[in-house]
């Protein structure tokens, strides 16, 4: 948890103490609710992550609207966290709300077909490329199903992922690369699956290691984000990386799964369209149904042929009675048809440009060796002077207390950032004034933390 370069450790400690105290004093109702929750929830939080987030008392949201959150203690926040892209379109986008309102009362789950399903799978094909599509309840499930299909299609059991990637709550990907090889993620026990046997890991952008790992021909699929977004920074593929990745996977009979879950802010066809990628399988979820739990996976004609044979009879392990319900699919149709438009992306990009400029200007003014990363409507920064090449170099994690301090500083003044990474997302409902406000507060916070040398 080292202090990032350029920051005065004493000032950081003082600011953090003060902001924690301020937060606690301002949230008595949330604190009482947490104590009540402790009797029926692990850590007194509905998801264990919340317990690891910066605020000493969880942010307890009464209501969310626009790109704003309203808490139980009466505070209002601009929400740049947007549920880690799950709420990318804002909390009450009119087109999504209208579609959901209209569908409620006409059936939420039926386990039967509807014209909306066909419209959605045709549209996913048009935008992202793969011809055949299936429905799941989450992005985690989309990745789980994609891996299952890849194993079934290739007859191989191992998978390969990039170090420190996150692909959802999957047993096979709860692993990291260390000098001693692949080990279970810190804090995760063997999880019932021995990741040392099932999972190969190389660093992002390391084509030599990738080539070596795939050479034995025992890997069913490479599961990859097209641009790494997890782990606190945007990590871009180097020129030629995707072409080489596609080439080596083809040569070794390995399938390529592109996980677009967090890269939808890159453009209306994700990075797959932006970069002209041609994966065998593609997965996504989160914002795809505008807040109704849903995921989808797309597959090539070859994978579809294998999957088709596999699912002719029996349970297959690919279904859920809760997947592809008309409520979720209607919401998907609204998202794809009315929200993921060029205008939406132009707005998100314009605001992200402004946010990035504000942060970069402060960093430059104070001569801080930090790097601002950007992917469409997403902005984040890493405490490294150059753009990170892989996520391994960001560990052991520098600046955890700095991220906590900034999160609390902002939240005590009405701005919520991503609680894990500090990243910001722009939604179509985010206003320019919100971004302006962030820029001013960021300047004040860094001034205080550096001693105002800038
Ligand atoms: N893939 C990626 C790249 C993700 O970042 C996440 C979640 N952060 C997931 C998959 C899983 O999404 P969910 O938790 O909604 O299942």
UniProtKB/TrEMBL annotation:
GO molecular function: transaminase activity
Domain of life: Bacteria
Family matches, as InterPro entries: Aminotrans_3, PyrdxlP-dep_Trfase, PyrdxlP-dep_Trfase_major, PyrdxlP-dep_Trfase_small
Known cofactor(s): pyridoxal 5'-phosphate
Entries under Gene3D superfamilies matching the protein: Aspartate Aminotransferase, domain 1, Type I PLP-dependent aspartate aminotransferase-like (Major domain)
Keyword tags: Aminotransferase, Pyridoxal phosphate, Transferase
Keyword presence, Transferase: yes
NCBIfam families for this protein: PRK07046.1
Record family assignment: Belongs to the class-III pyridoxal-phosphate-dependent aminotransferase family.
UniProt protein name: Aspartate aminotransferase family protein
